[in-house]
What we know:
It is a single chain. By secondary structure, the chain is mainly beta. The protein contains 4 helices and 45 strands. The strands form 10 sheets. Strands 8-9-10-11-25-20-19-13-14 form a 9-stranded antiparallel sheet. A hairpin with a 3-residue loop joins strand 1 and strand 2. The N and C termini lie far apart (72 Å).
Amino acid sequence: MLRYLAVAAIAAFTVNAHAETPVTAKTTEATITLDNGLIRAVIDRTTGQVTSFKQLVDKPMELIAQGQTLYWDANGEPDSPPAGVEVPKKGYYRPPAHAGLAKLANATPEQADVMVEAAPTPAFPFAVEYHFVMKKGLSGLYAYAVLRHPSNQPAATLYQTRFVFRTASDDTVFNYWTVGRGKTIRIPRSNVVSQVTDATFLLSDGSIKTKYLNSVYFAKTPVYGTLGVQPDESHGIWMIEPFGDYHNGGPSRQGQTVHDDVLLRVVQDTHFGSSPVQVAAGEDWRKVYGPFLIYADRAADPNALWDDADRQLLAEKAQWPYRFVTAPEYAKARGSLTGKILLNGQTPQHIQVILSDPDPEVAWTAQAKGYNYWTDILPDGTFAIANVVPGDYTLYVSGADQPQDYVQTGVHVVAGQTATLAPIDWRPEIHGKTLWQLGTFDRTAAEFRNGDAARGYQMFARYPEQFPHDVDFTIGKDDPAADWNYAQWSWYAQSPLWHLRFDAPAQNGIATLTIGVASAQPAHGKLTDVNVTLNGQPIGMIALSKTGTAGYRGGNQDSPYNVVTFTFDAALIRPGNNDLAFGFAEARPFPPASTYAPAGESDDDDARPGLKGPGQVMYDAIRLEVATK
């Protein structure tokens, strides 16, 4: 404890001693150097990349790997490339290097701003502007990017854009990743034996390393980083995001954080089924991604580092939206929205209110061109969303164990004003009396077995041991968290069918089976082929296209969400025991483990579900209702 206090006191004193050190910016023909006494950053003027990021406090330390950089990149392309134009694989793009690419946009004793600009090209029809900003007294560097599709450009798609910090690869500098308090992972350093799938490698110690297992929900993880943990002191480099209104897909958006010696700030991508930005020919589109803070600190141990990073997050939230941004597209004057939600006249629980693009034909999880805002309702049903970019939005109410969202169009937000909506009394559609329900309609399979620990490699390999007789679940008897797997794989242990059994009295009228699907991956072809039968009688097929990569990249949901309903004669429900069965039409037995263990072959990024893996469907919740005659 005394050591902790001593190290913390020394670190705080040293930082405070530099709090009033002015920012300096020195420009040469080759570089721009920013320095505030806490951090020194060197930007290459030809490439626009940060070649040095040195922590100056106490013991000066270089945080970028030798020969590596902190850089911005993107993946995008024209929908129809002009004749003779070769688009790089997956539309990969960095601004072409040339003398003077990076410029010192402004410099005062309070802050300095380095800007990089690049015009559209035939292979990447977006104009790019990105910034690195240093402020006095802050141990870090802000970054943000502006993407513009001018009206003279062809139709195009932007898949991904991000900032990449290549951290020092020496264990004496960095040896742990951290994606949450208590989620500190030793960086694997064993030699790579083979690549087993995209960005996934078999190591000489028999373990697997893959960038996908450190994916997070960005809305729930505003802070993450890479740490150097040593006996005498610890230090960290962090990504801190006060609010990610620029992320595509809103609060359910998942993405990557850290892998190998790489610290990422992904601001737009298509992992887990998130949508790209698609712009039409002649469409003038612009969007600001960021700012966020790249922050360096020192403390006694990882917990103290987290305390400091959380403190800095609160400081960033208090300043957001930032005043230092110079891009005209960045709205500094913003508005607010308030309202109240009732569910069938009662105050609901577990509800999120989401503002997204005004097109109600596109689900909020698929929105990518504009900005998103969200909040949880308070216990009295009220909500308030502040700092909204002025404009028109569609409001979505999601949650409360409801398979469908409430949608309200025409929400208008004005700068400097608070818009108050009339109270909303949400009356979801019902299909009669509920006989039973498995799970909660919350868009995830988290409540089922393995669903709370889905970020693992080849999760399907656990199934034969955990369910040697496959899933056979009885309503009212079995435990969903233990007896219903989070994913139904297209491979089976003994039987191709999952059984969901229930007792019921004789029924008449119309029955409705509602199935929420959190993720779908066809085993073959373009659609899943899960046949659903009741007491041996077919009632429908779950035929869905691929929703994303959750099944083979460690998730319990994708961004796209589907609700499948089957209606049938309630007389099919017989008095007493009933058997509702689910089975892939092309199901096959689990092969021997050796056929899907790492074997050195590499799959394409999105073409197949990992090395020789199965397809799957993840059920969010299943509800059976009957409307009597």
